[in-house]
């Protein structure tokens, strides 16, 4: 069948643009926010990143599916993207780890895909006009274009409510008992954040979003991590007060993406929505104190408004995005707080910022050593 004739489905944007495509994965319609990511590999990490919940994700890289799907690349317990939009879809993967095709994986989870889409035109449109409401339909027959556009205008998007409860996981513990203890608040954590911490010989307790500060403090953590997660950070009201108490407790605190935004809101700053967000694997970020530039993995639609950061309270911009100057990280003059808007765990994307886990775990170890120190009794003393 020719591509023209197979393009019976479509991505329909709320502003009236219709992008035809060939359905793959689950044959059902989906509503969401149309976004794009420029990562060149890592489609499985993208769809299983809980921060993509409720989003119809366009991959700008033009060949998707060619290495299939495997267990190791999964970043959470299931795929969360509302739908996947690609240029060319490959249904005959070639990789020794592949256990199934991307299409059968998406189909098992009820997620529709759309191939043969002019993803370059779609991306240029979203860059100019911003991310927007959209629907993905596997088959346009039966509905007029006007009816499809009216449906897209009513589409549900993840900024409508607090969507973090939909993706958070179950409580879990990892690592040896006799090690520095980190409590991670799971707003939609990715597995490589957990793995990156565990590689540094810590004990980890994961608690779902919604936990209060007293419960966290009762576990006597040496460090606290607040994970990435989906949606508009101002909707995640169950965490903002918790983060305020924890970040000012003197315990080392590491906020990643949504965790960074929640810290900023807790400190009294504002968040704003970016026109088309930052989603990709090559965003340059400059560390202000050193001038060092990192190439980072990103997936966010919101950012912290620079002019709202309460510098009088000791909060300082630590990192900025080299492309658009937006805030990419915060530190505090005296508290052991580090936050980043990007993803030091990569997955997908570069691992260049793994040193941030080193920096955080170093603070955690210092606290643990101070907390567990026993007075050293020299031989002969006190005898
Ligand atoms: N990956 C994330 O944590 C994303 C944070 C937030 N949902 C945003 O889009 O900005």
TrEMBL record:
Residues 7-137 form the Carbamoyl-phosphate synthase small subunit N-terminal domain. It catalyses: L-glutamine + H2O = L-glutamate + NH4(+); hydrogencarbonate + L-glutamine + 2 ATP + H2O = carbamoyl phosphate + L-glutamate + 2 ADP + phosphate + 2 H(+). Residues 1-180 are annotated as: CPSase. The keyword Protease does not apply. The keyword Phosphoprotein does not apply. It comes from the Bacteria. Its EC number is 6.3.5.5. SMART domains: CPSase_sm_chain (SM01097). Gene3D superfamilies: 3.40.50.880, Carbamoyl-phosphate synthase small subunit, N-terminal domain. L-glutamine binds at residues 51, 229, 231, 258, 261, 299, 301-302. The active site is at residues 257, 343, 345. PROSITE patterns: GATASE_TYPE_1. Keywords: Amino-acid biosynthesis, Arginine biosynthesis, ATP-binding, Glutamine amidotransferase, Ligase, Nucleotide-binding, Pyrimidine biosynthesis. CDD domains: GATase1_CPSase (cd01744). GO terms for biological process: 'de novo' pyrimidine nucleobase biosynthetic process; 'de novo' UMP biosynthetic process; glutamine metabolic process; L-arginine biosynthetic process. InterPro entries: Anth_synth/Amidotransfase, CarbamoylP_synth_ssu, CarbamoylP_synth_ssu_N, CarbP_synth_ssu_N_sf, Class_I_gatase-like, CPSase_GATase1, GATASE. HAMAP family: CPSase_S_chain. Belongs to the CarA family. This is Carbamoyl phosphate synthase small chain. It comes from Thermomicrobium roseum (strain ATCC 27502 / DSM 5159 / P-2). The gene is carA.
